[in-house]
Amino acid sequence: MKFAPNRLLLWITVLAVIPSTTLVVFGGPAAGIAMFVPVFILIGAAIDVLTSTHLLDGVSLETKDLLRCTKGKEFVVPLRFSCKGAFLSCLRFGLKLPEEFRALDLPVMTIDQVPVDSVFGVEYRLLPLRRGQYFFENCYVETPSRLGLWLMRGQIPMNLEVRTYPDLSSERRRLSGLFLNRGANGIHTRRQVGKGREFEQLREYLPGDDYTDIDWKAMARRGEPVTRTYQIERTQEVYVVVDHSRMSAREIRTPLDEADELVIPENIEHGSGGDVVVTTQLERFLHCSLILASVAQRQGDLFGFVGFADGVDRFIRSRNGRDHYNVVRDALYTLEPKKVAPDFEQLMISLRQRLTRRALLVMLVDLSDPLTAESFYESIQLISRQHLVLVNMVRPEHAHPLFSPKKIPSDDMEVYECLSGHFQWRDLREIKKRLGHLGVELAMPDHEALSAEAVTQYLNVKRRQLI
């Protein structure tokens, strides 16, 4: 229990103690009486603090153990106070907020006239600024002493965990057509290419049936031609593989007026060309992963997640359902870039050992570094024949052909930037061709189109029955 002087005690000190002390020092007709004024005030203040020490002992707090929220969207922390043993003229309280949260109301809230043995609930409105896992450990309370000379202060331990998930509203708006229930595959019904791969039944041979579909063993048993029929496979395995090594920390700059999500002051960078919002490539990877999980759930496929840096640190076996989506979301929302080089060889060995059934692997990696790209090319051959691999990365800002820049260079420095971007684009195009020879598709969309590109690839694979 701690205590601090209240405003009333400060006023008494100014109006009574200081004048009486002045009289005692400089003398006067009332100096004898004045010397007892500070003593009486000191005794009264001591009695007040001693009799008020236990005022907050009966105050307890109940709250939930776990709360989930979305970055940039308001949420409420419900607090339930219980006051026993003493009447409180006023109760002030506040939470110790991490710097990633902003209080929408006053940080310190006040409840007047708290009766004995009362129970009341309060809602604490907060705005989360970053994704991640956070813990609220203490609630600080304060009440005036019995005579109002002191402020009695204490803290109540809390065990509240808050999970802040990425905001997918902007990606969902771009892909709104994919979430409409029109036909089998999103925006509109599409013709399925091929006859499917999953065995359905046996039937009698009909003229025009392909000889490759004849079941020769069944024909030998029955004594007449029998044809195998197939159906479209509905439960395919889809895995998103996210690289959160050092390359995932590559910054992405968006003009402030074009930002479509909550802007945090710490993420704004001021420059001669205007203010820009700085985020990382990993943030886009996580948004894309959750969007793909939502689409795969609607398509009825099994969805899994793999996170790796210098090794595989998160592996979730593919399943379906809303509960499984929550499991995947809880596994990736705390991912942060690691200052290590990606170990692609260890990743491919792990995938080859764990995934025995043919699956679609959507890899979100950064191959803008030539050494990293070469290492990826040598390692991907371990799984490229067994699985269908789609690689997506965010196109670097200046990686464009030399004579097709987004803006015309205005000085020599921008000319050299365009030339450097051309060389980078050429290297990426070369690695794309080399991966294409292995049956691996590499896409390099802009950061705002990453989710749309990955979903389009996935739906095309579904339509063509490539898995």
Summarize the structure.
This protein is an alpha+beta fold and 467 residues long. The protein has helices spanning 7-26, 31-34, 37-51, 169-174, 216-222, 281-299, 322-332, 344-354, 370-380, 412-437, 450-464, and strands at residues 2-5, 59-62, 66-70, 75-83, 88-95, 101-103, 108-114, 118-128, 132-144, 150-165, 198-204, 226-231, 237-243, 251-255, 268-269, 276-280, 302-308, 312-319, 360-364, 388-392, 441-443. The longest helix is centred in the last third of the chain and has 26 residues, at 412-437.
What does this entry look like structurally?
The chain has 467 residues and is α+β, with helices and mostly antiparallel strands. It folds into two domains: 1-165, Sandwich (Immunoglobulin-like), CATH 2.60.40; 237-464, von Willebrand factor, type A domain (Rossmann fold). 31% of the residues lie in helices and 30% in strands. The protein has eleven helices and 21 strands. Strands 1, 3, 5, 7, 9 and 10 form a six-stranded mixed beta sheet that branches. A six-stranded mixed beta sheet has the order 18-17-13-19-20-21, with helices on both faces. Strand 19, helix 9 and strand 20 (388-392) form a beta-alpha-beta unit. 26% of the residues are buried.
